[in-house]
Amino acid sequence: LTPTRELTLQVSDAFENFGEFMSKRPKVVSLIGGEGIGDQLYDIQQGCDILVATSGRFLDVLSKKQMNLSHLEYLVLDEADKMLNLGFAQELDLILDAIPDKRQNLLFSATYPEKILNIAAKITTQAVQVSIEEGVPTVDTIIQRVIEVNINNRASLLKHLIKTLKLKNILVFMANKRATDNIAYKFRKNGFSAESFHGDLNQDDRNYTLREFKNKKINILFATDIAARGLDIDDIECVVNYDLPRSPTDYIHRIGRTARAGKSGLAISFISHEDQAHFIIIEKKCKVKIDREQIEGFELIGEAPKKEKGPAPVKGKKKSKKDKLREKANKESK
Predict the structure, then answer these.
(1) pLDDT band for position 91 (50/70/90)?
(2) 239 vs 331: CA distance, rounded Å
């Protein structure tokens, strides 16, 4: 099970590649939303060795009661910390009820926050932790820069950096789907090769956009966090946090899209007055300290907005339950 459709297809491809020269080539079936469920049901009914799926589509197929899971031997969660977040934790019970109790569980992730380990205990009670240490930690091969800039100046600064640093393959993370579409459109109008990538695109468009970016037909991909997890794209020179991630662990996953396979890379985060406190939390959780810098012509101006204490709550005209009980008690005591 994986958290995104793209990762499901990538893992399926990996199994196909690894199995190509085996004496008995394993049959691999992938299940994702956005594609016809009829063909997927047919593929499953023909039998398979490996099923790779997003949890949502897996549960859709499970509800059809046309899948025999009695011989299942392995349950694998890729990007396990993302899979075990609150939303998936509710689906997890349905999945665990449908599969054999006797099985091996394998959970893979680059990060494991403490709260995730507690949910993982529902899957396995005697987990063996395996840590694979790299010769050089991935973060050490990434040059991390933090540039202070006003929110309304970020697009202009990004264009400036692309031109002055001669960046060609850039992944830019945005806060939401609408923002990715809007900025990609504006950059195309300015002569840049840019596209947006997010969950509201139909599956054919998602597949096409990702393929074109991998083949370097698109230079700039504006994406939501759907692209932060697990996607293996060669030669991304630079990752830009146009908007900061909400979760500090997502910061590590985002910047990890560059400097793949031992190469070096660049990660740039834009921060305004409003982001300062949040980025300090990211630094603390990720155990990094990055010098702030400003670019001439795009300096951060103004002052940080002061946090104003809200007005005291105004008591409503209607009497509260407590008030009524007090009045009743007072009458009875007189």
Answers:
(1) confident
(2) 70
Break the chain into its structural domains and give their ranges.
Answer: 5-120, 138-293
Q: How many Cα atoms are found within 13 Å in the side-chain-facing hemisphere of 277? A: 5
CB of 168 closer than 8 Å to CB of 219: yes
- Per-residue pLDDT reduced to its tens digit, 160-184: 999 999 999 999 999 999 999 999 9
The listed CATH number (3.40.50.720, 3.30.450.40, 3.90.960.10, 3.40.50.300) that belongs to domain 138-293:
3.40.50.300
Q: What is the pLDDT of residue 23?
A: 93
Phi, psi of 54, deg, nearest 5: -80, 150
One-letter amino acid for residue 323 of the chain: D
Give the CA-trace dihedral at 81, 84, 87, 92, to 10 degrees: 160
- The domain over range 5-120 is classified in CATH as 3.40.50.300: yes
User: pLDDT per residue over 280-312, tens digit each?
Assistant: 999 998 888 999 999 999 999 988 777 666 666
